[in-house]
Amino acid sequence: MEDIRRQQPEGSIPIDKVGVKNLRYPIVLLDKAHNRQHTIATISMFVDLPKEQRGTFMGRFVEILNRYHREIDVHKLGTILKEMRERLGANSAHLEMEFPYFVEKCAPVSGVRSQMDYRCWISASLSDRFVLRLGVAVPVTTLCPCSREMSGRGGHNQRAEIRAVVEFKGFVWIEDLIDLLEECGSSEVYSLLEREDEKHLTAQALDNPAFVEDVVRKVAQRLDAHPQITGYLVEVESFESIHHHEAYAYINRFRSG
Prior knowledge:
single chain; alpha+beta; 6 helices; EC 3.5.4.16; hydrolase
């Protein structure tokens, strides 16, 4: 039977990325406190397609995942990308994963424990070089410096999200990146708090007012000083409580891409 995918396409145009998206799959990650953490990732896999080939072999992406026995260790991503290139006859391969990551947090005064989930993602690509990036989205509280200055009794505060994507050498714990970002807001966010914790966090935010511009610069300074971080992108988005818009700030320090 003729393989239609190997036919000459009508338009001889190369395709940068072709593959499968939004495949849910179990993965395993290194956990700083508990050694390993199992979670479910949404995975996308792509390769480039030459102008002479009509289509790629979509089933092979899933076959490659299945070779890793229902678990994907992030340290195997380079091997997976290499296999994608070889089996699909491609020059470049890309893999993206987004997943929830859970960290146990203790409330600042009562010490009550609760689980916080953080949205994380990993992107890896292999062409002339291997590129691995780790991303984390962390909720924080921001308190407006102008509002505090004008009111004399407090200031409007709101939930904000810090999103950072980093390239690194060696190894970086997800937990350490989360901690770095949480320390840059006016105060942290918790899943469970007692009244004494709420009082503490309210006072902490009042003592540490910050615009999104302040937060994004503080994160950038911390990442610049980090010995393992070689490039980064940081976004801060504040979901305003008294304005009908969001406040946003962005810094990109990747060398390329």
